[in-house]
Amino acid sequence: MKLSFSPEDELFRDQVATWLRDNLAGEFEKLKYRGGPGDEHMFPAERQVWEQKLAEGGWTCVGWPREYGGRGCSIEQQVIFFEEYARAGAPGRVGHIGEGLAGPTIIAFGTEEQKRKYLPGIVAGTQLWCQGYSEPSAGSDLANVKTRARLDEARGKWLLNGQKVWTSLAHEADFCFVLARTDPDSVAHKGLGFFLVAMDQPGIEVRPIEQITGTSEFNEVFFDDAECRADDIVGEPGDGWKVAMGLLGFERGVSTLGQQMQFQNELDEVVRFAKGNGAANDPVIRQRIARAHAELKIMRYNSLRMLSGQSASDGALQKEALIYKLFWATWHRTLGELAMDVLGPECDILEGAPYALSRLQSMYLFVRSDTIYGGTNQIQRNIIAERGLGMPREPKGTAR
Amino acid sequence: MEFAFTQEQEMIRETAAAFLAEVSDSAAVRRAMATERGYEPALWDRVCGEMYWQAIHVPEEYGGMGLGYVELVATMEQMGRFLLCSPFFATVCLAGNALRVAGSKEQQSRWLGQLCEGKLTATLAFNSGSSDWGADAITATWRREGDAYVLNGCYRYVIDGHTADLLVIAAREEDSKGEAGIGLFLLPAATAGVECRWLPTMDQARKQAAVRITEVSVGTEAVMGELGQSWEALARVIDIATIALAAEQVGGCQQLLDMTVAYTSERVQFNRTIASYQAVKHKAADMMLRTEVARSAIYYAACIAQEALEGTALSGELSEAASVAKSYCSDAYFAVAGDALQLFGGVGFTWEYDVHLYLKRAKSSEHLLGNGTYHRERLACSLLD
Ligand SMILES: Cc1cc2nc3c(=O)[nH]c(=O)nc-3n(C[C@H](O)[C@H](O)[C@H](O)COP(=O)(O)OP(=O)(O)OC[C@H]3O[C@@H](n4cnc5c(N)ncnc54)[C@H](O)[C@@H]3O)c2cc1C
After folding, report:
1. What is the pTM of this model?
2. Secondary-structure class of domain B123-224 per CATH
3. Which residue has the higher pLDDT, A303 or B123?
């Protein structure tokens, strides 16, 4: 057990920091600290240009193997990259769903042809992805998806029909990975398939949903004979659940450290306000800020534990990985409340009409979703109790 | 960077767990805690003779095993899990670390040598009865008289102070304030004018004492470090010991969680095991979250403590790491103990079941060396002031 980085890794840190300093300038200056959850509507086009700039420097998909266009960085180097990226205030990545979810899934479960076809666009920052899991009747109970996929053998195409909802960034995305039922008579997690579907086609309609912040980052997506090629299914028909669950594991990867640096930036801003308006003298606020700081520190070490440890032989998540989502989501939600309480009555005053939220206001509202998406806090607790502690599974209901 | 246990560290932890499961079961804890001494000398002899824990992180030149603080923390975690009644924390984590941080070469070879042989128990006394564990807690005094120093004052919350052979005590120069004027002294408990009195405690598995020192005169060989300038060294000792105490708290959390899962999986009400109720599962999940987060905090803090002992790159983070770990682990332990008692129902309230031993330990260790509020205020000072 050792916390410090090797001299080579420190050199790598310099290299990342220097590149970011030299390149996150000029036209990109205005992108600093922009984008990311709650701020995705800011400069999407410019941020995609930035994504391509990163790609030119070889700074997209740094943890992917070289054979798939990645940089082949060690875990330590990935840690460093994400830390320096956030430290520099570099913008929220438009490509994160592709780099963090779609790509690793294709690398793990896809065919060679799928890898050749889809990975280069993610690496180059030219093709963006979205995640088509949730449906009106499949939220926490994801296995209840009703969207159907039927193989038209004559045309060599899958035809998709149904509706997805809460699909983040579907309005920006070029592709969507879709969980859909290949066996119409199946129920629950049997009979599902995992499809790679182009968004720009007549069979797909995207309707933005206005969210709590007044902006729209997620959407309804309607499939009406939407098409993809017969070989655009990852795994076999019926394997969809396995592939979809494998993907959830990637959400607990190295990028969590980048997310934490963003949390650090937010906490720093809260501290700046507290010092500025005198809230820093309030003993209760002091306690709350110190608690947030302490827990964010621990969060980093929890991630390092997660990254250093080998998962159990059965592929089960280690305990520190099982609790991670519940921990960070709850922490972040608490930070939002703290931010408003530091601002005091000013927390209600907008930057302008009709509904221009400050960064902290937007953060405060957006963090309410952290304990909902990607498995709600309640679902996380079920998973922890059942997989981490071996307690009995939830009984299945008989409603509907 | 490597944040997983090495195989050797894994082995140390497993060996400790296996040993303690055998020698520190509920009956053994209850036997020891019912005595005024608070531990069974035969068991302490086994700890020193077979496990060599008293020497775990003492450098080899003084007869120690020369392992790191991570190994010590892993062992301490297991001691907390099994509530081992022993003078380990006082002797090794308090006095031993004081000798390592502030002792001269001669003092180290004399006292650490005996300590490693298992012949000596020791403790650290500095707090005169304050919930603020900083320099202001020190009210005992020293004054110079010729070549000698005369010590006067009172201490409370001195762990195992009524049984320790050797005391490391902190005192301030008469009329000094705050962090100025602090001196550290080595004082055999048998010295005339030193009176150590057992303080009966609610957490009977850890013994505390009050120490009174009246006109005790010592020579320069008793002085540790630079007289009058010792606050910084003492602060480091307290931080390093605090990290070990936090590790003990994590062990307690783990045991409570295991006990609760086992009990709720057996107990049937309304024709179901109570573990199948979501309200019970969710509480257990929160207990596991707190336990794992607390564990991450102590492993990181242990690495920092090791750097601080060696004076390497990250030493400067010591006080932050100690406060991060102690504030989180203290609150986690008490919350987990409270939840455990609730999930045990009526039997959790009995003397017979072990839950109360942990509930009491959770509260006593929370306040020892500073509770969550104290440590968060320390963090707030460096963040906000
Ligand atoms: C900002 C945001 C972005 C999102 N982006 C995407 C995306 O890109 N792609 C995508 O596919 N989805 C996305 N989602 C959807 C998200 O994954 C779902 O909202 C989530 O899974 C919860 O489903 P639900 O909203 O239907 O709530 P429900 O499942 O109806 O839950 C409602 C309440 O019931 C509780 N509950 C449900 N089941 C249980 C149970 N078994 N035990 C105890 N309590 C229970 C829940 O905890 C919750 O409190 C996004 C959601 C948000 C808010």
Report:
1. 0.96
2. mainly beta
3. B123
